[in-house]
């Protein structure tokens, strides 16, 4: 029986993954590192430090330099998220969250981002969540299951009673290895392995998700 939902944030509830991309692109341009939207796909769901190491493509950096680069990327990202308002909720998100709550299901956030609480507040949906697990919560990031297990524990639910909603390959892997049901959003190439796949949450109701999962 499904009793809770754990939502990823960036790319699921809002298009902040676009802002992460722009911030990385700006940093890469300044540093003369080749980087593209296509390469950015590898960074979906991946924490700041691991992302930077991918962007650096083996370039050697001291810890001090790494810290400065991460700080700079985050500054660019934070400039971009200032403009987020409730209008930036992706289509279908507000309706689905309201329906899940009305159905008595527990809701948690499971995001790798250290900026998750601020983005959720700017979106105006922080009060809808019973628990938040974010980039401050665990040390083993996605694709390890720890973040989602942390969220489920905060909800007081076993993994098997929770559905994870994700847009990243690393997130689907994390959900699977933690024993969660998973809903993947986006191209099948990205979220292959999810128990149910939709292009996005537009028009998706609880019944659609349950029907897709029962068809397993
Ligand atoms: C994830 C994003 O949600 O959070 C990644 O998909 C991002 O792109 C990661 O790198 C960490 O975010 P932050 O805000 O802590 O740098
Ligand atoms: Mg995501």
From TrEMBL:
Coiled coil: none annotated. Substrate binds at residues 8-10, 24, 43-48, 51, 73, 111-115, 142. Mg(2+) binds at residues 8, 10, 166-167. The record marks 111, 142 as: Important for catalytic activity and assists the phosphoryl transfer reaction to Asp8 by balancing charge and orienting the reacting groups. The active site is at 8 (nucleophile), 10 (proton donor/acceptor). Belongs to the HAD-like hydrolase superfamily. CbbY/CbbZ/Gph/YieH family. This is Alpha,alpha-trehalose phosphorylase. It comes from Hydrogenispora ethanolica. The lineage of its organism: Bacteria, Bacillati, Bacillota, Hydrogenispora. The chain holds residues 774 to 989 of 989 of the full protein.
């Amino acid at each position: 029986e499904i009793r809770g939902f754990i939502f990823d944030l960036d790319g699921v509830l809002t298009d902040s993954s676009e802002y992460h991309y722009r911030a990385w692109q700006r940093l890469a341009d300044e540093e003369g590192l080749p980087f593209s939207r296509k390469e950015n796909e590898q960074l979906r769901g991946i924490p700041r430090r691991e992302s930077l190491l991918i962007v650096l493509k083996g370039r050697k950096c001291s810890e001090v330099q790494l810290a400065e680069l991460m700080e700079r990327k985050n500054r660019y990202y934070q400039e971009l998220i200032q403009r987020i308002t409730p209008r930036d909720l992706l289509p279908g998100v507000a309706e689905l969250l309201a329906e899940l709550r009305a159905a008595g299901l527990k809701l948690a956030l499971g995001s790798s981002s250290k900026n998750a609480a601020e983005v959720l507040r700017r979106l105006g949906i922080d009060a809808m969540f019973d628990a938040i697990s974010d980039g401050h919560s665990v040390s083993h990031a996605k694709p390890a299951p720890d973040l989602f297990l942390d969220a489920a524990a905060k909800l007081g639910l076993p993994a098997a009673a929770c559905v994870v909603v994700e847009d990243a390959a690393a997130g689907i892997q994390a959900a699977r290895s933690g024993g969660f049901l998973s809903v993947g959003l986006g191209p099948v190439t990205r979220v292959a392995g999810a128990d149910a796949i939709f292009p996005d949450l537009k028009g998706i109701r609880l019944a659609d998700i349950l029907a897709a999962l029962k068809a397993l």
